[in-house]
């Protein structure tokens, strides 16, 4: 593994970008910072590179990947955009929104990316990742850069923990600003289906399109395997809506009045809590705690996405092979 600093003002940026592009062109993987979490990126047109992603993550092959693009123009070459999907892309890209659209079979994206589905998930990330895609000139397939079923990485250091021994070039762009994965949505029959909650809220999607937005819940037919129950899991057991510390365990607090405990946001700011969520879960895992007791988090705005991840982290872990 090689780690290269990739801050916005870093002197060797152009050289590093060249190295990363070269690495991708050889079918190798690059860990890239996006605004949500770090992605493990490979050339989406190269079947071997895509297979290497699945292999490195130990991810079941039926679980499809998101194709990352530099903008709507590139997106339209790989997927068929209806008017509403195109309008959503125009409003929220670059940003934490993934759109599932009909795949363009002539778009050059390897079939393994969408794991045999007729649809393809596409997103245009903010920041360094977008620069990398633009420099590479083609879409990058990129799941979160963690071993399947584990916590998504929000800093370059986390990637070392996950994949220290692998041939991965890591672009270190510091901490991810959003901290949880993108919202995934698809437009179907004049409605929007929310396949995964994220930083772009249901209200924002509804307001932007004037359409109804329906959350596809875990009980219904699974369309995004990220909806499977055990997911985003630390090693420790997770308990939700805890009031007081439960022994043996560590508290993960939200809001004021929990002095001395690790806190997602002392000022009860959901955005700050989302950005801290995975980092704090990892920190508690590193301490070797048996149980993580999380205090209640309001089920509003970004709290919906945070609680969604926490419920999956707390779910029984028997679904081997059904995680991303
Ligand atoms: O924020 C993010 O979305 C991050 C960064 C790296 O961009 N990526 C990410 O990828 O979270 P991943 O692979 O960990 O999660 C992608 C989710 C999976 O739950 C997958 O099942 C779903 O997207 N997905 C991919 N293609 C799909 C499709 N055609 N239809 C429905 N769901 C799909
Ligand atoms: Mg993931």
Question: What does it look like?
Answer:
The protein has 324 residues and is of the alpha/beta class. 30% of the residues lie in helices and 21% in strands. The chain has 9 helices and 16 strands. Strands 1, 2, 3, 4, 5, 6, 7, 8, 9, 10, 11 and 12 form a 12-stranded mixed sheet that branches. Helix 7 (202-209) links the parallel strand 11 (191-196) and strand 12. Helix 1 packs across helix 5. The longest helix has 17 residues, at 270-286. The radius of gyration is 19 Å and the shape is globular. It starts with a strand and ends in a 10-residue tail after the last helix. The model is unreliable at 218-222 and 319-323 (pLDDT under 50). The structure holds threonylcarbamoyladenylate (TXA) and magnesium ion (MG). Residues 34, 36-37, 39, 63-66, 98, 100, 114, 117, 119-121, 123, 125, 142-144, 181-182, 184, 195, 223-226, 324 line the site of threonylcarbamoyladenylate. Residues 143-144, 152, 324 line the site of magnesium ion.
Describe the global form: globular
Mean pLDDT over the residues: 90
**What is the share of helical residues?**
25-40%
Largest sheet, in brief, is:
12 strands, mixed
| Uncertain residue segments | 218-222, 319-323
Radius of gyration: 19 Å
Q: Secondary-structure map with pairings?
A:
Elements (H helix, E strand, L loop, with lengths): L1 E4 L7 H13 L3 E5 L4 E6 L3 H11 L8 E3 L3 H7 E2 L2 H10 L4 E7 L15 E5 L4 H9 L3 E2 L14 H8 L4 E5 L10 E6 L2 E6 L5 H8 L3 E3 L21 E3 L10 E4 L8 E2 L6 H17 L4 E4 L7 H13 L10
Parallel strand pairs: 1-9, 2-9, 4-7, 6-10, 11-12, 13-16, 14-15, 14-16
Antiparallel strand pairs: 2-3, 3-8, 4-8, 5-6, 6-7, 10-11
Bound molecules: threonylcarbamoyladenylate and magnesium ion.
